[in-house]
Amino acid sequence: MHVRTLTGCLAAALLSLPLLSGQAVAAESPAAARVLTYDASGSAEFRSAVDRGAAIWNESVENAELRPVSAGQRADIRILADDGWPRALPTSLGKGTVWIGRQAVDEGYNTVRISSHELGHILGLPDRKPGPCSSLMSGSSAGVPCTNPYPNAAEKAEVEDNFAGAAGSRAVAGPVPVLIED
Ligand SMILES: [Zn+2]
């Protein structure tokens, strides 16, 4: 009885070895990240804030990676500056246009938070308003003093989920793109 139990344990341990090593290899090479290119050449004075917003997402999630587009290539995401309110027009998951609106910047809202918030929309996140400053997608509802540009754990998990799997091509909204203001 005692011997049989030991043998069982050993067999279980041996069986689990290939699984464990397979997981270790998968964890070392997150090659599944979907690369999304962005063109911030039209973002004027917000260029560095946009790059910081993209870097924050790259630090925060594994399954998607925002990368500046190469010259002459068509980007998945276009980022522009204008005098309106910040907004995003996701056309499909990981693609669309973002406007860093000076109206909010002039009111004192943080440009890096605006940038990562709007990129969050392109990554498939809806607004979560009203909400606390710890939530990136609470947007302007967290108030002008809120400068947090980082997604919270739930927001990170949602983006990871959106881009899970090789395709990562789940549609954001319906067939018609909807402009998200703020
Ligand atoms: Zn928003």
Automatic annotation (TrEMBL):
GO biological-process terms attached to the record: proteolysis
Superkingdom, taxonomy of origin: Bacteria
Enzyme class, first EC level, given as a word: hydrolase
Localization annotation: Secreted
Listed Pfam families: Peptidase_M7
Keywords: Disulfide bond, Hydrolase, Metal-binding, Metalloprotease, Protease, Secreted, Signal, Zinc
Cofactor(s) listed: Zn(2+)
Signal sequence region: 1-26
GO molecular function: metalloendopeptidase activity; zinc ion binding
Primary localisation category: secreted
Catalytic activity as recorded in UniProt: Hydrolyzes proteins with a preference for Tyr or Phe in the P1' position. Has no action on amino-acid p-nitroanilides
Membrane spanning stretches: none
EC number: 3.4.24.77
Any Gene Ontology CC annotation: extracellular region
Family, as annotated: Belongs to the peptidase M7 family.
Protein name: Extracellular small neutral protease
Species, as recorded: Streptomyces coelicolor (strain ATCC BAA-471 / A3(2) / M145)
